[in-house]
Design goal:
Chain A: It is found in: Cell membrane. The complex is a heterodimer of chains A (304) and B (292). With 304 residues, chain A is mainly α. In chain A, 69% of the residues lie in helices and 0% in strands. Chain A has 16 helices and no strands. In chain B, strand 1 and strand 2 form a beta hairpin. The longest helix of chain B is centred in the first third of the chain and has 36 residues. The chains are: A mainly alpha (304), B mainly alpha (292).
Chain lengths: 304, 292
Amino acid sequence: MSNQVAQQYDKRPRMKEHGAVKRKNPGTNISKYISYLFLIVLCIIWIIPVIFGITTSFRSQSEVVSSGFRLFPKEWIFDNYVSILENTSTAPILRWLMNSLFIATMHTLLVVVVISITGYGYSRMKFKGRDTLFFTLLGISFFPGVVNLIPSYKIIDALGWVNTAWAMIIPGLAGMGNIFLVRQFMNGIPKDLDESAHVDGAGHFRIYFSIIMPLIKPVLIVCALFSFTGSWNDFLWPVIVFTDVDKMPVTAGLLLLQDIYGNYRMIGQLMGSAVLAIIPTLLLFLFAQKYFVQSINLNSGIKG
Amino acid sequence: MKKKLNLAPAFFVGPHVILFAVFILLPTFYGIYASFTKWNLMNEPVWVGLDNYKTILFDNGSTFHTQFNNGLKNTFIFVLLSVPLLIVIPLLVAVALEHKKVKGKSLIQSIIYVPGLISISAGALIWLLLFNKQLGMAGNVFGSDVSWPANQPYAWILIIIITIWGGVGGNMIIYRASISGVSQDLYESAEMDGAGTIRRFTSITLPSIRFPLIYTFVMTTAGAFNVFGQPLMMTDGGPRQSTHVLMMYIRQLAFGNGESIAGMASAMAVLLGLVILVISALQYYVMNRNAA
């Protein structure tokens, strides 16, 4: 994909080369230091909250209150986590984490199935009105989502999905964004490949599984990562759909914690809960860093 | 050859078309329809024509009118404060990271990207602690003894900070990928012509990444109009409703604990949707024309 993007740029008219003598550019070093300074300051600002949140979850309440702003605790304690995990009645965070895990995993698996099958249909199959259908759906999906928020709840209610994981897993599958990406990606695969397979007697399912699927793995991985983190971090929809404390995902649970851990009287517990809620996406990022960054090329493919 | 009705495409495309119809098409039309009705989510909607819109837009005595105006004003404030920063900062980061001599690029990129992976609710808890009057940085480092979420302009600053913190990474990565796609020959020949850093940025980088710029600008703006989580978690709309954004009113009216007025909320949602649509179209039109 990155090659495609590069090729696209290479088609641009090039700046005329004047064959001028190479001059020493005095700006280079200054710009290097400015770049460094800017990036380092930004990195410090960006990372401090993360570190502070994590280390505060290992502080005792008395230390938080008395010692002012220190990045690392005087004494590392684990009591906060013990008490978080023990409080299963008002703030069942383990339960919330399991709910989130189930929701995000199921959603991601289904996303991969739906977008690869649908993308195959729009990219590799010929049928009447194919492109019209695709672009009509794409056009409609640009309409601001806020309009369908309230009726979506009504539909979830009619399906009996209020306070169930399905409310989080299924509606998001209808989006067009990922399908657009997959279709773009598939369009870049030579048609001869499946045509010759077709001549050899392979059907669409066969071609989809054995030829196309392996080739579109990169785009599927990227979509899966973003679906997982998106689903894990979703906030507005779960706040609307879940009223039952035991059923909600962890993002909605954290909203309750502000009250449960009493206006920052139990700060270690509050921070510990926030830390538990961000660990899965951080781990995912650490393991799949290169795909997160690769994504990017896929994203920029949108500019077409 | 193709005389037989081929059902295979229906199998591949059909399931998603059904999902789309049920979870996007139907609710969108129903949302527009509901905005012309008196409805409280439970009963059958009763057609009232333009009544909701009249109340929201023109009835000075109505709380819906006040709420809508206040919510829209606050939403606009958020958009105007956050969007420029969410475009400029990532662009500067991407350009700085593109510098040949800067080392440790992937580490820097990761650090800046990571907050984007943290949910609004978890991030808000951390920032609230950092800016807690007694405990965090605001008091101990900046020596400020006001409660940030409860006073203006600090409440807005806090909301903007967490938004920028979480939002810069995504756009940065789009810009980075786009800039790294620009042919190095261009830069080299420009450098030979004696073009400085700024000149290279304005004459090569900016025009080359025109489409990603337009794309992120339009998407970031549209996203910002839907702002909800940050003010809900950080300030709960306060102080004195000054950060109460439109999405919060829409949710309150439609799903609130009291009497829910879904028809009125739908009308507000349609109005917000129209604002987003018009502004996106305008942005796209203006930027595309100027850049061409």
